[in-house]
Design goal:
Layout: H1 2-15, H2 29-33, H3 37-47, H4 63-74, E1 113-120, H5 129-140, H6 146-154, E2 160-165, E3 173-180, H7 185-190
Antiparallel strand pairs: 1-3, 2-3
Length: about 190
């Protein structure tokens, strides 16, 4: 799992410039260790509000019973006049499609190799987003996908493989991710 986390961070660091909000920042452990309760309460009051919240519940549900329970539990949670934190400045990224980057994160203690390949596509509101989401599901949307059937079932080169089109307000990545044994890394990456 750590190899995948490092790989995803590396992918985002190569796709987005350092000032972009979608690039994962390296956290400073001291920031977490030195945070005090007043800072946490202030952050909570600024960001955790019905104005900025969405509740999603999925599964086999009793709609009427669940609605009553939610209304009971959240009835005291009233909207406030907080700033709208969902608006982002325009952070468009210039695409240089001719440039190919190979980025290696060496971790000798890793039990397996995580491989990521990706590119920035479109924002969720774009007319092509649904087609890219469909493409990601056909390529790597589970055990029925083409990549899974080829690289895992037919060739036996990987433990798992997936393709994902992220949904974001700004252009977001479409990426493929797989994990494989060290001895299969070169074969898996080539396919």
């Amino acid at each position: 799992a750590l190899s995948e986390q490092l790989g995803f961070k590396a992918l985002l660091s190569q796709l987005y410039p350092s000032t972009h909000p979608y690039r994962m920042k390296r956290y400073n452990r001291n920031q977490y260790n030195n945070a005090n309760i007043n800072q946490l309460k202030s952050y909570y009051k600024k960001h955790y509000d019905p104005n900025n919240a969405t509740l999603i519940i999925s599964g086999a549900l009793e709609h009427t019973k669940l609605t009553k329970l939610i209304e009971k539990k959240f009835s005291q949670w009233q909207p406030t006049n907080i700033e709208n934190t969902s608006s982002l400045p325009d952070h468009r990224v210039e695409s240089n499609s001719d440039e190919k980057v190979i980025y290696i994160v060496n971790r000798d203690s890793a039990q397996q190799v995580a491989v990521f390949a990706g590119l920035i596509t479109v924002e969720k509101s774009h007319t092509d987003w649904t087609s890219l989401l469909f493409l990601s599901k056909v390529l790597g949307g589970g055990s029925h996908s083409r990549l899974f059937n080829d690289l895992r079932e037919y060739r036996g080169l990987t433990y798992s493989i997936s393709a994902t089109q992220l949904a974001r307000k700004l252009p977001a990545p479409l990426f493929i991710k797989t994990s494989t044994a060290h001895e299969n890394n070169n074969k898996t990456t080539v396919y």
